[in-house]
Amino acid sequence: MNKNHYRYVLRLGDNALILGQRMTEWCGHSPLLEEDIAMANCALDHVGRARLLLSYAAELEGEGRSEDDLAFVRSDREFENFLLCELPIGDYAFTMARQYLLDTYHYHLFTELVSSSDETLSAIAQKAIKETTYHMDRSRDWVLRLGDGSEESHERMQVALEGMWNYTEELFERDPVDVQMIAEAIGPDPEWLHSKWQADINATIKKATLSVPEKKWSLSGGRNGLHTEAMGHLLSEMQHLQRTYPGLSW
Amino acid sequence: MSDSFVNDSIEASVSKSRILAVLEKVCDPEIPTLSILDLGILRDVICHPKHLEVVITPTYCGCPAMKTIEFDVIRALDDAGYKEVKVTMQLAPPWTTDWISKRGRAMLLKEGIAPPVESKDSLGQGIECPRCTSHDVSLISVFGSTACKSLYRCGSCFEPFDYFKCH
Ligand SMILES: [Zn+2]
């Protein structure tokens, strides 16, 4: 097994799964009926994407684990998602700001992965890029609406961006896993993604009459299994059924 | 039975068309008049020496209907006497609404769902109200009752309707 290849795909799957799980928390609680449906739609796409990626990760690992084993019986130290994905949902401004930052990240990432030397990853990216484009259009729209909206909505969107800004550097870190993926033409250079991402984000923030937050400090560790306090709570809910009734199936 | 699944023979092509006739009756669980052939998610039927392989592709990554469709395919073929069936999922090339057949589009319209318009970037352009055929329509939400549909409202008859969006 190529451990770095496995971890690369696992990280992609974990990001999709943990963010998808957060999005489902709005189901039945969104501010508008249409939003409730839209959020559930997008959450399903994330969970579907996680299934494809985690199945593939399990296959690369070659130890007989399934997508469900990876999703439901790993502990927090074994998850390698970005910290940004696991932060609690906050208010709708926080939720949509996070979606926008991550949708834009995924948009550029999947655009590159379409031409990955890994055929399976390329196939997943070709599928995911289509829906990511819808997701990004919607989340960008909310950043604009709230940012360039009422005094209160503007304030809340600005606070949301400030609150998550120090978690964004982690999206573009480069460790030995990334270095090997770049060398094998499997994944893009995070630095390149960073420049594409930053340009889009800056343009939207400006258009939304908001200001780009100042980076005061930076938090990371998710990709190496070091998570925030929120992660354990998320997993206890997500994994409840499999932990209580191990091996339970439909 | 399995002996007849030999490629490149008349027998094989006869059995393949029989299989397709069976699969024509398997429908999308969300739109029960739209078959998986007309929806364009059936990609291939391969006759192996000992089993049949049915290749399908998902519409969206998160389409919750895929598992049901897989069971329905196996059940329909089982009823028709094909006992050894394997359903495999193919991701690339990704499904597009261009693969919905002419008959599939007519089926959508009959269900009150506006079929996708041909041009790729259209959100509103050329969409017709499935009830009164008016083009005076406006978007309510890009995300409708399922991921593959958007919600519109007709300005002439004032009815809301689903639009099967271009993908
Ligand atoms: Zn009408």
Layout of SSEs?
The complex is a heterodimer of chains A (250) and B (167).
Chain A lengths: L2 H22 L8 H29 L5 H6 L10 H4 L5 H22 L5 H29 L3 H15 L10 H8 L6 H18 L21 H10 L1 H5 L6
Helix pairs in contact in A: 1-2, 1-8, 2-6, 5-6, 5-7, 5-9, 6-7
Chain B lengths: L9 H14 L3 E2 L2 E5 H4 L2 E6 L4 E5 L9 H14 L5 E5 L12 H9 L2 E2 L22 E5 L7 E6 L5 E5 L3
Bound molecules: zinc ion.
The site of zinc ion (ZN) has 8 residues of chain B, from loops.
Characterize the structure shown.
The complex is a heterodimer of chains A (250) and B (167). Chain A has helices spanning 3-24, 33-61, 67-72, 83-86, 92-113, 119-147, 151-165, 176-183, 190-207, 229-238, 240-244. With 250 residues, chain A is mostly helical. In chain A, 45% of the residues are buried. Chain B has 167 residues and is of the alpha/beta class. Chain B contains four helices and nine strands, in the order H-E-E-H-E-E-H-E-H-E-E-E-E. Chain B has helices at residues 10-23, 36-39, 66-79, 102-110; strands spanning 27-28, 31-35, 42-47, 52-56, 85-89, 113-114, 137-141, 149-154, 160-164. Chains A and B meet through helix 2 and helix 6 of A and loops of B. The complex binds zinc ion. Residues 129, 131-132, 134, 154, 156-157, 159 of chain B line the site of zinc ion.
Averaging pLDDT over every residue of chain A, what do you get?
A: 96
User: How many distinct folded domains of chain A?
Assistant: 1
Helicity of chain B, as a percent range: 10-25%
Radius of gyration of chain A: 18 Å
The tally of beta strands of chain B, per DSSP, is 9
The CATH topology of the largest domain in chain B is GMP Synthetase, Chain A, domain 3
CATH topology of chain A: Ferritin
Summing up helix and strand content along with how strands pair, one would put the structural category of chain B as alpha/beta
The number of helices of chain A is 11
Counted up, domains of chain B total 2
Instruction: State the name of the first-level CATH class of the largest domain in chain B.
Output: Alpha Beta
Shape of chain A: globular
CATH architecture of the largest domain in chain B: 2-Layer Sandwich
